[in-house]
Amino acid sequence: MIKATTYHPLSVEDAIEVARNLKGFFTPGSELRCEEIGDGNLNLVFRIQALHANGDLNKSIIIKQALPYAKVVGESWPLTIDRARIESEALLLQGKSVPELVPQVYLFDADMAMTVMEDLSDHVIMRQGLIAGTKYPLFAEHISEFLAQTLFSTSDLGMNQQDKKRQVEKFINPELCKITEDLIFDDPYTNSSNNNIDSAILDEHTALCSDQSLQFEVMLLRQKFLSQSQALLHGDLHTGSIFITPASTKVIDPEFAYYGPMGFDIGAVIGNLLLNAAGQQFWIQDVTKREQYRDYLLTTIRDIWNLFEMKFRTLWNQHGVDRLSTAHGYQDHYLLEVLRDTAGYAGCKMIRRIVGLAHVADIDTIPDTSSKEQAQRTALSIGKALVTSNRSIHSIDELIDAANQAFKGVHVS
Ligand code: SR1
Ligand code: MG
């Protein structure tokens, strides 16, 4: 292993050297090939694969390295490399409760802000799979398990409350939280230079900037994000943070992990499925097939919530550590609040992906201008409906109804 005393961004050659020195992985003498495959907003990602020798054929690993700035913007946006520690510690913790749902971590090097982990190249990024119209029959089962286990086990319901406070300390992640606070809960409602808004929908942005009742709800959600240390979140659980096949789901990239409101993670998954549903306006041209796929996405959303709720209640009933949490009605009250937060955060995440800095390929890569505009307006309409109604929602069906109403209501001539 190269032991660098000072941090520097890895080259392809450095990455091969790291791989070669990884104890017990590649056979000495194996020919190794490396490519930088990072397509995210922040990091370098190298895939190192053995080519021929010594039975290592096709053996591979991933090396992920945090850059000291946000790659999506450039060096003008400095960013702590400590996020690599947060990510590897979060992966290790998640690996204790749901080992089959996260990549295995082989090594973390704090000086180089580098994590060596399992290569998941036999999976696809879920966002790409959804754009292609693929169905994932086990996804709701898998992601509800991930959410129920990781959120319950790190909350005051599931762990010793003094230990939890010490864990909160380890996952204080102010710089990455600040990105979220700005990009999700501020910029979309102001004339921020971070925003990226198609000229066709400038009217929508003007409306967001003046909608006081919407901003009131965003402020309540922002305040909760700032102050509620409910559970250790993944923190950026969109469909680009999920590797998938029809049989397997792996949640990656928890560099935004911090202690926050549970609905922020669940809402991220749901908001991104709804963004995809809005984008299918173009990707599936046949109306019947498009409606079938939308039904599939909405059914998946219903299943995710229902399975999450069932599993979370079971964990609580079997392993709850807080005696008073068995008080009559408290569990129902708690889960209703998580559902409402889920709706609100799903809505916020949809709005930011249309007018904010970082968009999603489900909608941004639509080549036809009119279909893209319609998809953007649909996504904004659903997002606004979820944000404004979040505190009065009583069931997952009401969340889905609110989305369906928006699908019906948007027409671009
Ligand atoms: C500057 S980072 C932009 C976005 O990319 C990440 O995936 C997060 O969603 C963040 O908001
Ligand atoms: Mg990421």
Notes on the protein architecture:
The chain is an alpha+beta fold and 413 residues long. It is 51% helix and 12% strand. The chain contains 14 helices and twelve strands. The protein has helices at 12-20, 83-97, 126-131, 139-153, 161-170, 174-185, 202-210, 212-227, 263-283, 287-319, 330-355, 361-364, 369-389, 396-409; strands at residues 32-36, 43-50, 60-66, 69-70, 74-78, 105-109, 114-118, 124-125, 231-233, 242-244, 249-251, 258-260. The strands form four sheets. Strands 1-2-3-7-6 form a five-stranded antiparallel β-sheet, with helices on both faces. A three-stranded antiparallel β-sheet has the order 8-10-11. Strand 4 (69-70) and strand 5 (74-78) form a beta hairpin. Helix 13 (369-389) packs antiparallel against helix 14. The longest helix is centred in the C-terminal third of the chain and has 33 residues, at 287-319. The model has no long low-confidence stretch (mean pLDDT 95). The site of 5-S-methyl-5-thio-alpha-D-ribofuranose has 10 residues, from helix 6.
Distance between the termini: 60 Å
Overall geometry comes to: globular
| Average pLDDT figure | 95
Q: Give the number of helices.
A: 14
Strand content: 5-15%
What ligand species are in this complex?
A: 5-S-methyl-5-thio-alpha-D-ribofuranose, magnesium ion
Structural class assignment: alpha+beta
What is Rg? 21 Å
Widest β-sheet, arrangement of strands? 1-2-3-7-6
Low-pLDDT runs of 5+ residues are: none
